[in-house]
Every structure is written in structure tokens, then in C-alpha cells.
Amino acid sequence: MQPFVLESPVLRLEVPGPADVEAIVDACQDPVLQRFTTVPTPYDRSDARFFLDRIVRHGWSTGREATWGLRGPGSSLLLGIVSVRLGTRDVGFWTVPAARGRGLMTEALRLVADWALGEGGVDQLHWEGYVGNDASAAVARKAGFRYAGVGPGMHPGRDGGRPLCWKARLRADDDRSPKAGWPDLGGGAVRECPPADDVDDSRPQTRGVPRSPEDS
Ligand SMILES: CC(C)(COP(=O)(O)OP(=O)(O)OC[C@H]1O[C@@H](n2cnc3c(N)ncnc32)[C@H](O)[C@@H]1OP(=O)(O)O)[C@@H](O)C(=O)NCCC(=O)NCCS
Fold this sequence. Notes:
Elements: E1 6-8, E2 11-14, H1 21-27, H2 31-36, H3 45-62, E3 65-71, E4 80-85, E5 90-95, H4 104-117, E6 124-130, H5 134-142, E7 146-152, E8 164-171
Antiparallel strand pairs: 1-2, 2-3, 3-4, 4-5, 6-8, 7-8
Helix pairs in contact: 1-3
The chain binds coenzyme A.
Coenzyme A binds next to helix 2, strand 5, helix 4 and helix 5.
């Protein structure tokens, strides 16, 4: 599959490349990003190059995973990364700390979902985030994902275990309005959530964000 651009009036998604190494390394120093993803820690230029070559380039060329960098219109500055794995149908993303809270990832996820559930031929998309990752859950909720419960994550954590995750899905025929039923994402106590008994946990273990070589 050849990389292609997705865009809206406020955002352009295009394949990240070697010029983005510094921005990726900078973003991956963020403790919040490190806490809620499985990027290597410490993270240096070799990790970013591995990500760009083995995950991004390889993902596009095999058609298994489509990864885009977020940029403002007319700007080359990398603002984040979003990806979708077409076999497992799951999404992954991060925004650089300085660009958070502007609605960028919500817009990016909408663009990716529109493509994946349309031309991409995927019938549904899965999102999961560690319990307590309110910001990520807020992005999925605002993009129209329906909360599916809590259960062991499909991707191993850094310790090799399966961290407890919130899970949600978006089907091709769902409308994209935010759905009721999500845990309280206001930063307060997490409500009791039903088990994610209807979520398929048997899918392979990778995340659409920079990760360690062992995860590929
Ligand atoms: C999750 C993340 C990608 C969100 O990126 P973003 O570009 O800031 O997202 P948006 O600006 O689109 O925010 C979406 C909503 O989340 C809300 N939000 C942001 N931080 C929040 C928090 N800590 N608690 C609750 N809601 C939060 C925003 O207010 C916004 O809702 P609003 O428009 O109603 O105000 C970003 O915080 C990040 O990179 N986190 C670290 C990596 C990560 O967790 N990745 C996801 C792994 S599953």
C-alpha cells in the first residue's frame, strides 16, 4: 500500500519520515506518553529510526498498518502520530505535549476512522487504553467509539503482563456522535465497569505507536 494523505481544514495527516526523528524523540521523553504507551524507556534516536523503518515503512509496504504524522495545514512540524492496524483493526495515537488539548487527536481519529471504515474496508475499529487514561478515552468517546468494558489489554505492558484496559469500538454503520456509558473521564474516581466479555482479546499484540523491537 502506498502512503497517502488524509486532511481536513485544520489538520493534515501524512506519513512521518526521517525529518521527524527529533520531534519523535522529544515527544517520547514525556512521562505521560511513557506511562500510557509501550514506547521504549529511555527513548533515543535509534528507537525513532526503528519506529520509522520497521513499523511505519514496513506497515505501509505490507498493508498491515497505516501510520500518519499529524501536522497543521502548511506546516512541517510533527504534532503527533496516529495509526490503524488493518488486520487487528485497532488504533493507536499520541500527541506531542505542547499540542494537547486543541482537539487535534479527536480530529485525526475521525479522519482515520472515516478512511478505515470506508475505503479501507474495515468493518469496525477497536480502541483500548490503560484504565485511568482519561485523555485517550475522551478522544475515543468524542470520535464516537462505544465503550465496551474493561479487561486485560491486547498488548503486553512493559513488564510483559496484560494491563487492565478500557475498551471501545466503532462500527462502520455507527453514527459518530459521542455515546453514553463511558466511565467518568473527569479525572475523578473510576466507576465500576462491566467486564469486556464481548471484546476479542485474542488478537496479536502490538500498538500503533512507537514501540520496542521486541514488540514487533
Ligand atoms: C491522549 C492524547 C493523544 C490526547 O491528545 P489531544 O490532541 O490532547 O486530544 P484532544 O485535544 O483531541 O482532546 C480530546 C478530549 O480529551 C479531553 N482531555 C484531555 N486531557 C484530558 C484528561 N486528562 N482528562 C479528561 N479529559 C481530557 C480534552 O479536554 C478533549 O475534550 P474536549 O474537547 O471536550 O475538551 C494525548 O493526551 C497523549 O498523547 N497522551 C499520551 C499518549 C497516550 O496516552 N496515547 C494513547 C494511548 S491509548
